[in-house]
Amino acid sequence: MRIHNSAHARHFTVLANSVLRDRRLSFTARGILCHLLSLPDGAREDVRTLADRNPRLGRRGVAQALDELIQYGYYVRRTHRDETTGRLRTETYVYESPPGADRAGGAEGPPTGTPTGSPTSVRPGTGRAAGGKAGASPEGEKNQEKEPSPKEPDPARELGPGPVEAGAGAGAQKPELLARAAALLARLGVHEPKLALSAADSLTLAPMAARWLDRGVTELETRSLLADGLPPVVHAPKSLLAARLERKLPAHRTSRDAAAPAAPPAECADCRDPLPSGQTTGICGECAGVARTGDRSLADPAPVPLAADLVPDRVGHLRALLRGGRPAPEPS
């Protein structure tokens, strides 16, 4: 087995191997412990919230894992009376190194030698963290009942101005191109419900989509590239589209790129039905009231019925044709 580790500059948690490899704990208990130790001090987690995040495990599985952590001192609940309000409250403490606990017999010690797959020679040590007094909130201890500290925003989850501003380019200088791009994004939800965007999200991503249109990419091709190969469930269509607009940006199209699909026919501004050949804008005849379904005004004229007194002559003419003779002139 080849292990590949990555060096992180921010948003990471350092834990001792003795915690990750404590054989007294089940893998479920170790996973929950690592999750709790990665939270900021003051975070609120209990059996219910953990079970909601892990529906396959359920409350019973979470409770059993927490019982293991309580047994070996990683998870401690303490009840005391608030001096200000006089009410009883329970505070929960999560320890990386339980105070006074000896894990030497049940935990695997740190490996010797150079770590396999380590990307850098300078890494934090895996020494044992020093335990502190309860309530002092030292490093490695989580007080889950206090007011949570402000959570630092994660830039990886936010669509910052970087990609949109960098992707604006010449397209952002043309208001009509931005309007076309915003309308294209707003109509994506009609063709693919997974990509339905709000009006604000469509305007936010419009500069990125305008780059595509400015490069000569047709709206049909843009829609196909953005909606192709979607996952079964899309939780964040705005983030997914932002990534695809940046990653799948095509090269500049020529005036007629043979590899690009043909331009779609112009659509009626009201009903979105295709317009007649040669018409590129406006509304169709049906929306204008000129032509209606079943109306024969624009179709071939109805045949004129034959007069009753001409029927015998017509029959005789047809019989002569069948016999091969020279028929009399066809009655008019």
How is the secondary structure organized here?
Elements: H1 17-20, H2 27-37, H3 47-53, H4 58-71, E1 75-81, E2 88-95, E3 141-143, H5 161-166, H6 175-191, H7 199-214, H8 219-227, H9 237-247, H10 285-288, H11 311-323
Antiparallel strand pairs: 1-2, 2-3
Helix pairs in contact: 2-4, 3-4, 6-7, 7-9
Question: Could you walk me through the main structural features you see in this protein, from its secondary elements to its overall organization?
Answer:
The protein is mainly alpha-helical. Among the domains are: 1-100 and 138-145, Arc Repressor Mutant, subunit A, CATH 1.10.10; 161-247, no CATH class. It has eleven helices and three strands; from the N terminus they run ααααβββααααααα. A three-stranded antiparallel β-sheet has the order 1-2-3. β1 (75-81) and β2 (88-95) form a beta hairpin. α2 crosses α4 (58-71), α6 (175-191) packs across α7 and α7 (199-214) packs parallel to α9 (237-247). Residues 103-124, 133-141, 153-172 and 293-299 have low confidence and may be disordered.
Produce a short descriptive summary.
The protein is mainly alpha-helical and 332 residues long.
Write down the overall geometry.
elongated
Q: What gap, in angstroms, lies between the N and C termini?
A: 97 Å
For the record, the CATH class of the domain at 1-100 and 138-145 is: Mainly Alpha
Order of helices and strands: HHHHEEEHHHHHHH
Average predicted confidence as pLDDT: 73
Strand proportion: 5-15%
What do we call the CATH topology of the domain at 1-100 and 138-145? Arc Repressor Mutant, subunit A
Number of strands: 3
Low-pLDDT stretches: 103-124, 133-141, 153-172, 293-299
Please name the CATH architecture of the domain at 1-100 and 138-145: Orthogonal Bundle
Strand order of the largest sheet: 1-2-3
Indicate the structural class: mainly alpha
